[in-house]
Amino acid sequence: MKKWVSASIVLCLVIMVGAGCSSGKTVEPASTSAAVSAKPGATPGEQKIEKVYVYANGGNLSSVTDSSKPEAVEEVRKAIMDKIGIEVIPIIPPKGSEDDKLNIMLASNEPLDVFNGSMVLHQAKGAAMPLNDLLDKYGQNSKKLWPAEWIGGWEALSTKDGQIWGLPINAPSAGNTVLIREDWMKKLNLKMPATMDELEAILKEFKEKDPAGGGKTIPLLTNLEELNYSLAAGFMDVGYGKWIDADGKVKPEVLNPGYKDFVTKMADWFKKGYIYKEAFTIDAAEQIELIKQNRVAVGAHWHSRELGNQFALQANVPEAKYIVADQLRGPKGLTMTMGGPVGNGWMISKNSKNPEAAMKYMNWLQTDLDNYMLAYFGIEGKNWKWVDKTNHVYERLNRDYLGDLIAAMSFAWTIQFRDASPQNAPSFEYYKNFLTNPKTAKKIVLFDEEYKFDSNALAENIPTLNDLNRMIEQETIKFIMGARLISEWDSFLQELNKAGMDKWIAAYTAAYNEVK
Asked: Using CB atoms within 10 A of its CB, is residue 230 exposed (0-12), middle (13-18) or buried (19+)?
């Protein structure tokens, strides 16, 4: 099952703009001034430079192989110090072992203030401190930055007693959707579909009219997971996810009566040749190649599958463009699913020597986009520049500085700026218009509960969990591809019972009752 943007949609941005590798070292400055005059954002009368140790595990230093130049990091560090009177000391994680290094540091006396942590792991294990008082005193702008309509951000980082343990990073999101070649729709004089029947009619037209030519047109390209999250909710009263049956028990998606209707429709589409015959056997890289080859008319995918590769496609087909089928509805309404909150956020270590300065720094980063850009991308005019400041479009000038000092990364900032690379523009538009939009997707039933479940306990209580998941995936694909008849669906559900579905239901129901 797809994790709903764990470390991140923010990380999607990171990967696009590039970042540096990690060394596993704490980067101490060459020298530190003993005192400075009062700085904007500092406590009135404060003179002493405050140090904040930041564990750089936001994701931006783990995606590529280069690293920042020490002199560039020092220049950014001094610029931040001049503005706020806080000296940021980055702790660069060893690449591939970020979590291990963090856990060691949290269990030791090594200096550490800010880190990207988990409620299930770090808060539950007592590694983080509550932030309520710090937020009240020094974090007002962090409170303001997070949009009020993004329900689930703060909630996922809070406990029942009202204590807040981190600053939210990612909002609940709907990343899977149906994307259609707009240029081919215009060529065939087709309108944006609003119903499943209209979408089916469009797939039929694409198959018969073959806009790619030579019989190469693929009416619909997808895979099972992304097909589920893009379309299945249209056949159910709820978003595609675990649900509560009339008996009060938590049931898996496959037991939802509407899911059988969905699989029946997909099987019909596959039989008619609308779904690519190898859709469920090829990997993501192979699917991307088909998109770049100008063969895919409609995709039911994670949005960046088509949108992130549209620019490469346009190199050979300049008019090619994918658009979101945002008006699409199934028999039971919206087809897209919005997952639940993610319990990861920017935390302050329980052993922090200077939690006040840590909160001041994160609040400063979340106060103004210029502050955020300085810590993330470096010196304006030297490391990066605005190409269109009004619309917050920037261009990186070099890779001397790659974000060693950034913390408090937030999707609330991600949607407010983008790099100038044309290949990234379609994905950023999706971020802004659809990813967190509750008007275009159904929430999962356990929106407020599932992120609190103890996955380790569930695995222990369901010995056949992996076997069940594999069985559901494999057999569902067989039904869609016609290897099994839909008339065998009830027999399939009985097979799941024999494989341990009763233990699955009992374990998830117990987890739900414990946290709800």
From this structure: buried
Residues 101-146 pLDDT 10s: 999 999 998 999 999 999 989 999 999 999 999 999 999 999 999 9
- Mean pLDDT, range 449-470, rounded to an integer: 91
Listed in sequence order, the residues at least 6 apart from 468 whose beta carbon sits closer than 8 Å to its beta carbon are: 462, 496, 499, 500, 501, 504
Cα separations (Å) of 317 from 59, 207, 295? 34, 20, 11
Are 102 and 55 in contact, with CB atoms under 8 Å apart? yes
> Distance between CA 480 and CA 148 in Å, rounded?
41
* H or E segment and range at residue 323: strand 322-324
- Can you name the residues that pair with 87 across neighbouring β-strands? 51
DSSP for 385-421? EEEETTTTEEEE--SS---TT-----HHHHTT-EES-
String of DSSP letters for 319-362: T--EEE-TT-EETTEE--EE-----EEEEEBTT-S-HHHHHHHH
The whole-number pLDDT of residue 96 equals 85
C-alpha of 155 from chain center: 17
- For the segment 292-317, what is each residue's pLDDT rounded down to a tens digit? 999 999 999 999 999 999 999 999 99
What's the pTM?
A: 0.85
Beta bridge partners of 91: 26, 55
Q: What angle do CA 504, 500, 447 make, to 5 degrees?
A: 20
Tokens 């199934």: give the residue.
330
CA distance 175 to 158: 25
Question: Residue 383 pLDDT more than 60?
Answer: yes
Sorted by sequence, the CB contacts under 8 Å of residue 380 that are 6+ apart come out as 370, 373, 374, 386
What is the predicted pLDDT for the residue at 6?
A: 40
> Is residue 26 very low, low, confident or very high in pLDDT (cuts 50, 70, 90)?
low
Neighbours of 363 (CB within 10 A): 25
Residue 159 β-bridge partners = none
Cβ-contact 476, 270 below 8 angstroms: no
DSSP 120: I
Q: Could you identify the residue written with the tokens 């509805």?
A: 329
Can you tell me the mean pLDDT for 67-92?
97
Q: How far apart are the first and last CA of the chain?
A: 22
Q: What is the pLDDT of residues 33-62, one digit of tens each?
A: 433 434 545 444 445 899 999 999 999 988
Instruction: List Cα–Cα distances, 67 to 17, 385, 421, in angstroms.
Output: 14, 20, 21
Question: For residue 226, which amino acid is it?
Answer: E
Would you call 158 helix, strand, or coil by DSSP? strand
Residue 445, both tokens: 């039933």
**Residue 258 in contact with residue 442, Cβ under 8 Å?**
no
Backbone angles phi and psi of 474, in degrees to 5: -65, -45
Helix and strand totals (H; E) in the chain? 20, 18
Q: How far is CA 336 from the centre of its chain?
A: 15
